[in-house]
Amino acid sequence: MNKAIFVTIEFCIALSGVGRPAQARRIKRSAIRSVRIIKGDLRVWSRPSYHSHRKGVIAGGGRFPVLSIKSPRGGCSSRWYQIGQEAWVCSGWIAPSIEPPTRLDDMTWMRPMGPWVLNRNRRTLYYPNLRRLAHDNARRLRELAGFQVFGRVLFGNRALLRVADHGWVAETEVTRAPQTNLVGVDLVKGLGLPIVFALKEQVPIWTVRGTDLRPTKQSMAKYDVRRATGRTTIAGQCYYQLRSKQRRLLVACSDTTMADRPPAPPVGLPKDEPWLDLDGKARILYARKGARILRVMLVSLGNQTPGGLFRIREKRVAMTLYNRYAHHPYYLQKVPFVIFFWQGFALHAAYWHDGFGIQQSHGCLNLSPLDARWVFSFIRPRLPPGFTAVYETKTHPGSVIRLRGLSRHIKTDVVQHLAGQARRAQRNARRAARTSRGRIKPRRPGTATPPQESPGMSPPKKRNGVTGGSGRSGANGDRGANGGRDANGGNGARRASSGHGSQRQAKPWLASLPHRPERSRMVAQGTTP
C-alpha cells in the first residue's frame, strides 16, 4: 500500500512538469531577467560547459540576475544562464522569470548555527528518511554522531527529532552538544602581544617571594586572556609571567598557552592580502593582513595535521563529515564553515567538544563556531550572495595559509609562486623608478621601439647582400641586428629584428634591401639563400 502511494505521488509530479527544461523555452529569450531554484543545490561553473572549473554551489530562495544566455552546449540539454562573473548554471531545476532579480542572502550569516545534539552511546538508532522510519528500519551508529536539530514530533509513544539530511533520531538517545564561550582576541582594539590563554577550568596564579612560589587568591577561568611579558623557568618548571605593576605573577605553561609575535610573512605576499598563520606548537591561529595581526584564535590539531604553505581551495557553509573506518570513527551532520586547504584537510567549526587549544581532531583544524564564521568571511575566495560553496579559480585564487611548528611537512608550489610574484613586483618597481627619473620613456604594452642611430654610430654592415648587425646563417638560424633568432632557424628560435618582435617590427631593417620581391620574401621568412 505504501509503495502504491509513493508511485502515485511520483506520477502526479511527472504530469505536472515541474522542473522540466522545456519550461525554460516558453519564455522568450530576450524577456528573461532572472532565474530561481526550484529544488536542491545547483552547481555553478566558470564557463558554459560541464568540463570547465567549478565556481561554487547556489541554493535557497530569491531570484538570481541573468547577465547573458547561451544555447545548449558543453553537456547540458537546456540553456546556460550567466548569473555572475565567471558563473554559469544549467539545470532542469532552475526556472527563468521575467521578474527583476531580488536581493540574495549571504549564507555565511543566514544559515542557522545549531542547535546540535550528540549520541549518548555507540548504539544510536538513526532513520535516514520517513520510509525507513515507517518500516522501523533504522541504521545503528557505532561511532561519534552529531546532529543538527530542526524540529520535534511525536511518533506513537516516542519523541523524535527531525535532524539534517531529512533524518530522524529518538530524543532519548541524544544529548545536547557542549556550549563554548570561546571567541578570538581582536588585536585592533588595542590589546598587544604576547598574551596568555587559559586552557583549564581554573588556572591558579602564582607569585614569587624570595625563592619560593606561593599561590595567590587569583585564578584564570577557561579561555580567559591576560597579557604576558615572557617565559621563565623555576625549579625546572615552565611558567609564563603575567604583566603586573605590583608583583611578579606566574601561570604554569601546562595549563596555558601563549600567543607571541609571529615571524615575518612569506616572501612575495602582498602587503594588504588577508592570510592565516598557524603556530602548531602553541595551537594559535593568527589572522593577518600582510605583516599586521588582526585576530588571535585558539585551535585544536591532530597528529596528522600537515605543515607547510598552502592556499585555500574550497569553502563550504556547511557539510556532513564522516569516516567510519578511522581509528575513532565519526558521523557529524552539518559541520559549519568548512575551509579546505590541502586534500581532505580543512579548517572548520567544532560543536562536539569544548577542548580548544589541545589535541582533539583527526588532522583538521578545529575552531569555535564564532571564530570559524569570522575566518570564513575574512579569507578568500569570497562567498558571493546566494552561494553555499565557492572554489578558487585562476583569476580569484584562495588566501595563503602557513602551518608551522608541525612534525609533518608538505612541499607545495605556493612558495615558488610567491617568489615569482616578488620578482615581478621588484622588476616593475625598478622600471617605474627609471621611468620617473626620465632614463627611459614609457611605452605602450605590446610595442617595440627600434634602436635609433646616433651621430657616432656607423651604418649596419652588409653580409652576403643582407643588412644585419652580427647575423649568422646556417644550422643555427639567421640573427637580426638585435641578435634575435628566426622562427625557422636552428633551435626553433624567434623572428628577426628583436628577440620578442614580429615581422611588422622588422620593416625598418628591410627598407635597405634590394627591391626584388622574391628576395624580400625569403629574408622575411628567414631562409637566406
Task: Please characterize this protein's 3D structure.
The chain has 529 residues and is mainly beta. It has seven helices and 35 strands. The strands form six sheets. Strands 2, 3, 9, 10, 11, 12, 13, 14, 15, 28, 29, 30, 31 and 32 form a 14-stranded mixed β-sheet that branches. The protein has a seven-stranded antiparallel β-sheet with strand order 19-18-22-21-20-17-23, with no helix packed on it. β25 (284-289) and β26 (292-298) form a beta hairpin. The longest helix has 24 residues, at 414-437. The protein is flat and about 90 Å long. The model is unreliable at 1-25, 451-458 and 460-529 (pLDDT under 50).
- For the secondary structure, the number of strands is 35
- Can you give the helix content as a percent range? 10-25%
Shape: flat
Rg (CA only): 33 Å
Strand content: 25-35%
